[in-house]
TrEMBL record:
<protein>
    <submittedName>
        <fullName>NAD(P)/FAD-dependent oxidoreductase</fullName>
    </submittedName>
</protein>
<dbReference type="InterPro" id="IPR023753">
    <property type="entry name" value="FAD/NAD-binding_dom"/>
</dbReference>
<dbReference type="InterPro" id="IPR051691">
    <property type="entry name" value="Metab_Enz_Cyan_OpOx_G3PDH"/>
</dbReference>
<keyword id="KW-0560">Oxidoreductase</keyword>
<dbReference type="Pfam" id="PF07992">
    <property type="entry name" value="Pyr_redox_2"/>
</dbReference>
<feature type="domain" description="FAD/NAD(P)-binding">
    <location>
        <begin position="5"/>
        <end position="308"/>
    </location>
</feature>
<dbReference type="InterPro" id="IPR036188">
    <property type="entry name" value="FAD/NAD-bd_sf"/>
</dbReference>
<dbReference type="GO" id="GO:0016491">
    <property type="term" value="F:oxidoreductase activity"/>
</dbReference>
<dbReference type="InterPro" id="IPR008143">
    <property type="entry name" value="Ala_DH/PNT_CS2"/>
</dbReference>
Length: 358
């Protein structure tokens, strides 16, 4: 069995930053990542990020992933295993992971769960036809592997993911027939929506997908208008011929390991679903388990990086590492999180966090 001070699960922006911070304070860290690439969702983000300099704003997501990986690689007390999927957490605080077709068991003094999130799907007739994709799959195909999903796409969802993926598809030469949004307003930043509209793509607010159709694969979709009570209005159907329907209706935290470990969970829709109850240092109700990033509530990579730093420092400090560094890191991280969650864009997150405490 492998033993270490801290195991970090997930090498996205949260997990990489947690590993870097804990190692910089002197703790021995084992970072486990199920993918063969580092960076989590950042590996498919070819666009430049918003935010502040402290969280790599104006850099492309793919470059932030490389920078964080290089920084983690500089610490001799960080071991990274890629292609290592953590499968289970057991009563005695041992975890198992599948790595290169064998099972390894690991016992750490502290765990930082930074597993990110999974995409939500939508129920509608024929949603299992070839050509129906999640936005993450479309981004991975296009931006990581250079493979186009099809020729003409209907995007469902106008949050930032739907808008950004639509724009990236246009850049890759794919037609975007339209973006369908059930809410009466566009969900994502208007700056992204404006770019899409300038390219001539219609955004149908208060519309939903009624069904997809096709024999062997998607040949088109019917969309229909919703009234102010979100009920479909018959007679408003529009037939849109496409070979791809891309679903971008939100993310839900990947919390299975936290449920297994018996962490107290709470349903907070503003943060994407069931999320772990934790204190300000990101310690869950199981005192040896910390969380950081989208698994603790859907936000953005900027907040995930800051949370990773905070969780890494809290875990290392609880083991006696860092001689007094924790207070300063904590103060800075909490100030950065407050700033990232300020203003109208952070209102939903602030509301969700309040529910979590209350
Ligand atoms: C289209 C799109 C555009 C975005 N644009 C921006 C933007 O402009 N600015 C911004 O700040 N944010 C943006 N984001 C959001 C940002 O990418 C995420 O919030 C961020 O990646 C979350 O980081 P994370 O480390 O929590 O999770 P992730 O990046 O999802 O990383 C989690 C990692 O954990 C691994 N993992 C999961 N389960 C296991 C397991 N059991 N064992 C081992 N490993 C596991 C996963 O493989 C993954 O690598 C965007 C997201 C998308 C999809």
């Amino acid at each position: 069995m492998i033993t270490t001070d801290i195991v970090v699960i997930g090498a996205g922006p949260a997990g990489l930053n947690a590993a870097i911070t804990a190692a910089s304070m002197g703790a021995n860290v084992l970072l486990l990542e199920r993918n063969v690439l580092e960076g989590g969702q950042l590996i498919k983000q070819t666009h430049k990020f918003f935010g502040s300099k402290a969280q790599h704003a104006a850099a492309r997501g793919i470059d932030i992933a490389k920078a964080l990986y290089q920084s983690a690689s500089q610490y001799p007390n960080v071991t990274m295993k890629f292609g290592a999927t953590v499968l289970g957490y057991y009563e005695d605080g041992v975890i198992t992971a599948e790595h290169h077709e064998s099972i390894i068991t690991i016992k750490a003094k502290k765990y930082i769960v930074a597993t990110g999130a999974a995409e939500k799907s939508l129920p509608f007739p024929n949603n299992d036809l070839p050509g129906i994709y999640g936005a993450g799959a479309v981004q991975t195909l296009t931006n990581v592997y250079g493979v186009l999903p099809g020729k003409k796409v209907l995007m469902i969802g106008s949050g930032n993911i739907g808008l950004i993926v639509s724009y990236q598809l246009l850049q890759a030469g794919v037609q975007v027939a339209g973006i369908v949004e059930a809410a009466p307003e566009i969900g994502g930043y208007l700056v992204h929506a404006a770019k899409i509209r300038r390219a001539g793509v219609p955004i149908y607010t208060s519309y939903t997908i009624k069904e997809a159709y096709g024999t062997e694969m998607v040949e088109g979709a019917l969309i229909m208008q919703l009234d102010k009570n979100w009920q479909p209005l018959s007679g408003t159907e529009i037939d849109i011929p496409v070979d791809v329907v891309c679903i971008a209706v939100g993310l839900t935290p990947l919390t299975e390991l936290l449920w297994q470990a018996g962490c107290k969970m709470k349903y907070v829709p503003q943060l994407g679903g069931h999320i772990p109850v934790r204190d300000e240092n990101l310690t869950t109700t199981v005192s040896d388990i910390y969380v950081a990033g989208d698994v603790s509530g859907i936000e953005e990579a900027s907040a995930a990086m800051v949370e990773g730093k905070l969780a890494g420092a809290a875990a290392a400090s609880s083991l006696g590492y860092g001689s007094g560094k924790f207070a300063e890191i904590r103060r800075e991280a909490l100030a950065q999180l407050a700033e990232l969650r300020s203003g109208p864009a952070g209102a939903k997150i602030r509301k969700g966090l309040k529910l979590l405490v209350g």
